[in-house]
From TrEMBL:
SMART domains: DnaJ. Keywords: Chaperone, Cytoplasm, DNA replication, Metal-binding, Repeat, Stress response, Zinc, Zinc-finger. Residues 155-233 form the CR-type domain. CXXCXGXG motif repeats lie at residues 168-175, 185-192, 207-214, 221-228. Binds 2 Zn(2+) ions per monomer. Gene3D superfamilies: DnaJ domain, Heat shock protein DnaJ, cysteine-rich domain, Urease metallochaperone UreE, N-terminal domain. This is Chaperone protein DnaJ. The keyword Repeat applies. Participates actively in the response to hyperosmotic and heat shock by preventing the aggregation of stress-denatured proteins and by disaggregating proteins, also in an autonomous, DnaK-independent fashion. Unfolded proteins bind initially to DnaJ; upon interaction with the DnaJ-bound protein, DnaK hydrolyzes its bound ATP, resulting in the formation of a stable complex. GrpE releases ADP from DnaK; ATP binding to DnaK triggers the release of the substrate protein, thus completing the reaction cycle. A zinc finger (CR-type) spans 155-233.
Length: 386
């Protein structure tokens, strides 16, 4: 996409957010629109499909901090100059007008004078170089997946169904009708850039004849109309690594939208949501759980049978254990793909019986008397007893 094409778009308006919207607001707006406009939810609706592509493109720019900063700066400069330009001075000191679009190309060989393209060229072409074309890379795509707690801790293979631009299966991304091939653009000799001079300055800009791709298609593919990409629904398999946490983002390189005319595809970012477990919780790589125990078990000691991710394990409770104490079971936590394994943290919590029968009441009364006779005072060191 040329710089002027970029300037003609209102990505904030496409997503319905203000220009100072936060990253979270942009993501929220995109997800809402993507759900409403998704082709699966609007079968046969060409208008909804077009809007889906528009909001996806807007999210591809505004959802990337670096791209968004470049877009904002470009819009600011374009608004300041009205799209016409600055006033430069040639070698003789006279005023020389040049169009702002001259700044949008990557700087070419400007000689000793360098040229303003050296300063601002990379702002819009994202690394294009004379002698090597860089067709437009596909936009990144975001989606979400929800896993059970056990799946997140042990890892899982999840199928994802996506509807987005993908390489055309008819022309294999070339944009040319099967049996034909794109030809090298004669205007830029395949570089995707053309250079020109104005006054003392030399500039390089995307070739208008091939739109910066470096090639031209004389007989376009009937399915993708020469773009090399079509919108289709596809199912991909995502391997979620063991130990993934709620809210973690996984990047799948090259699984996003297809680039135009064989350009690299964007990336797919999968946000993982993990369902809560009835017993376990997580603290980093450690698993935590709370086990109810009786006063007698705390006072006399016992061995508790507690669950883990792989069966049950015995945890020894020493005599005189205090309520709320946490015991550690090594190596029974969450294992990650880098070889790190956490521990199981077992916290004991005394459970008080709501009612007592006669025998239990008499026994407990006798114990309370014996406890006082022994001199034990549970509040001896409590600050409120002074």
């Amino acid at each position: 996409m040329s710089a002027r094409d970029w300037m003609d778009k209102d990505f904030y308006g496409d997503l319905g957010v203000p220009s100072d919207a936060s990253e979270a607001d942009i993501k929220k707006a995109y997800r809402k629109l993507a759900r409403e406009l998704h082709p699966d939810a609007n079968p046969g609706d060409a208008g909804a499909e077009a809007r889906f592509k528009t909001v996806s493109e807007a999210n591809g720019v505004l959802g990337d901090a670096a791209k968004r900063a470049e877009y904002d700066e470009a819009k600011r400069m374009f608004a300041t100059t009205g799209g016409r330009g600055f006033s430069g001075r040639g070698a003789g000191g006279g005023g020389q007008e040049f169009d702002l679009n001259d700044l949008f190309g990557q700087a070419g060989g400007a000689g000793a004078n360098g040229g303003l393209g050296d300063l601002l060229g990379g702002l819009f072409t994202r690394g294009a170089r004379p002698g090597g074309s860089r067709p437009q890379r596909g936009s990144d795509v975001e989606t979400e997946v929800r896993l059970d707690f056990a799946e997140a801790t042990k890892g899982a293979v999840v199928p994802l169904r996506l509807t987005s631009p993908a390489p055309c299966t008819t022309c294999h991304g070339s944009g040319a009708k099967p049996g034909t091939s794109p030809r090298t653009c004669p205007t830029c000799a395949g570089s995707g850039l053309v250079s020109r001079n104005q006054g003392a300055f030399g500039f390089s800009e995307p070739c208008r004849d091939c739109r910066g791709t470096g090639s031209q298609v004389d007989d376009p593919c009937p399915d993708c109309r020469g773009t090399g990409a079509t919108t289709r629904t596809r199912t991909i398999t995502v391997r979620v690594p063991s130990g993934v946490e709620d809210g973690q983002r996984i990047r799948l390189a090259g699984q996003g939208e297809a680039g135009l005319r064989g350009a690299p595809s964007g990336d797919l970012f999968v946000t993982v949501h993990v369902n809560a477990h009835a017993v376990f919780a997580r603290s980093g790589h450690d698993l935590t759980l709370t086990v109810p125990v009786s006063f007698g078990e705390l006072a006399l000691g016992t061995t508790l049978s507690v669950p883990t991710l792989n069966g049950r394990v015995g945890v020894k409770l020493p005599p005189g254990t205090s309520d709320g104490r946490t015991l550690r079971v090594r190596g029974r936590g969450v294992s990650t793909r880098d070889g790190v394994t956490g521990d199981l943290l077992v916290t004991v919590e005394v459970a008080v019986p709501p009612t007592l029968d006669t025998a239990a009441t008499e026994a407990l009364t006798a114990y309370a008397a014996a406890e006082r006779a022994s001199g034990f005072d549970p509040r001896a060191r409590w600050a409120g007893s002074r």
